[in-house]
Amino acid sequence: MSDLFGIDVGVGSIKTVSLSKSGNGVFLDAIGEVKNPAPEWIKNGIKSKDWSEVASSVKLLFNDLKAKPKQIVASLPEDEVISRLIRLPPLKDNEIIDALKFEAETFVPYPLDQVSIDYEVVEKDNAGRLSVFAIAAKNETIQLYVKLFKSLGMDLAALESPAVAMKRVINHSVEAVNSVMLVDMGEKYSDVVSLNNKKVYFTRSMSVGGESLTRAISINLGLDMSSAEEYKKAYGMKEMQLEGKIRQAIQPVFVSMAEELRKAIVSYREELNKSIELLVLSGGGANMPGLTEELAKVLGIEVQVIQPFLKIDTKKVVLPININADGCRFSLAAGLAMRGLEDDK
To answer: Which range is the signal sequence, renumbered to this chain (predicted)?
Structure first.
């Protein structure tokens, strides 16, 4: 078993994946999930005891897997990350970070001595001008993750933006497409990541997630949230199911989501003068019946659900999930684990 684990501390649950490489093959060494007992642990801050509840759940998760990870790769929630595509003049490598700090004053809403900035050069034109994907996060939030894993005796090898991790999953599982938009559907939020030539150019977070759809069903049909969730998973956007009542209930939320995606697609085209070729869905809400078909019809592009384990050998472990149907929920954890496999970390 690999010593490195990718861990996704999501709002609803905490997921982990460990991968290893042998020859030309990639193998799944471990996969698991536990409920997150303190969904607001980041917002409540380092002085709250919420982080210790999360730590207890992480410990339980690894105990269940009989795993003793030495290194952890985790991700910040997208709404805790500020990212921008920055255009810079020709610069040496050691000059880029200073230029980004100057640019950051225009889009980072915190004092710069309270944030950490990272970046990736995504394009360099013939004149040497740079397109840089810049990422900033509050030091206080970063320290919360450091404290969490240090309390468990684990080394936090890297703390990434979800966009960086999801880029690996896209590049690993999607072929022959240059312009891709990924929608990672979480419980409360959905993250949108736009890529071109295997590099991240834009990200945005939408306040529409699986819970929004479930609540719409609950309110419109007078169901408790648990029953509404089951109806959503069973019938979704299918027009012929239950006389279309579930579809009608979630239609306003779907329309809002589709409009946000349309804006992101237009923005991508205007900025890069290229069109999105493929929309990929991941996360817990990706498999809702009828969703891919409805989005394809409304947006006019191909839509598919990501299969993060499609090219990964899963025979070594007893799977706690249907890897084909539910593997998309573990996309972020898989992308974090892939950091240990690739040279372009």
So the answer is: none
Regarding whether 109 and 71 lie in a shared domain, the answer is no
Read off the amino acid at residue 114.
Answer: Q
Say how far apart CA 221 and CA 249 lie, in whole Å. Answer: 8
245 and 157: one domain?
A: no
CATH number, residue 275: 3.30.420.40
Structural domain count, the chain: 3
Q: Which range marks the domain in which residue 119 is found? A: 80-137
Give the chain's largest Cα–Cα span: 62
Could you tell me if 29 and 1 are in contact, meaning their C-beta atoms sit under 8 angstroms apart? Answer: yes
- The answer to which of 46-50, 74-78, 85-89, 124-128 has the lowest mean pLDDT is 46-50
Model pLDDT for residues 6-44, shown as the tens digit of each residue = 999 998 899 999 999 988 889 999 999 999 999 999 988
For residues 248-255, give the mean pLDDT: 96
Q: What are the E-state strand segments in the chain?
A: 4-9, 13-22, 25-35, 71-75, 81-88, 115-124, 130-138, 155-160, 179-185, 190-196, 199-206, 278-283, 302-305
Residues 16 and 124 grouped into a single domain: no
What's the pTM? 0.92
199-208 pLDDT, tens digit per residue, is 999 998 898 9
